[in-house]
Design goal:
Elements: H1 16-45, H2 51-73, H3 81-100
Length: 121
């Protein structure tokens, strides 16, 4: 979308596609909230060498929960948010596939963590 393009606004009843999309976004937001809350136990249990990574993961889940809520409330009002969310999930998927292929050694078991908004590992 061009920077000066008008934002599409909807009025009246939502289409079935909009309702399904919003329902999926609310589901993604709920999954991300549950994952962020459950990550707190990992942060508390982490030792000094991994606590920073666990906190970073928990914050990321909380940020995505917020992004999914914003998109569910007003899916056509936030320019660039869709692109950021999709780029993040694509990057995680490519990284996970590389980890599973063994190109990056030592972390194969946890490679799929964080690839879905509700992933909790």
């Amino acid at each position: 979308m061009a920077a000066d393009a008008p934002v599409e606004r909807t009025t009246g009843a939502l289409s079935s596609r909009d309702r399904v999309g919003r329902a999926l976004l609310w589901l993604a937001a709920l999954g991300a909230v549950v994952s962020a809350v459950s990550a707190l136990s990992s942060v508390v249990a982490a030792n000094d060498s991994t606590r920073g990574v666990e906190v970073w993961r928990m914050y990321g889940l909380a940020v995505f929960a917020g992004l999914f809520v914003l998109l569910a409330l007003r899916p056509r009002q936030y320019r660039g948010v869709w692109e950021l969310a999709i780029a993040n999930k694509l990057a995680l998927t490519v990284t996970g596939m590389a980890l599973l292929a063994g190109t990056i050694r030592g972390v194969r078991a946890r490679s799929w963590c964080g690839m879905a908004p509700s992933a909790s590992c």
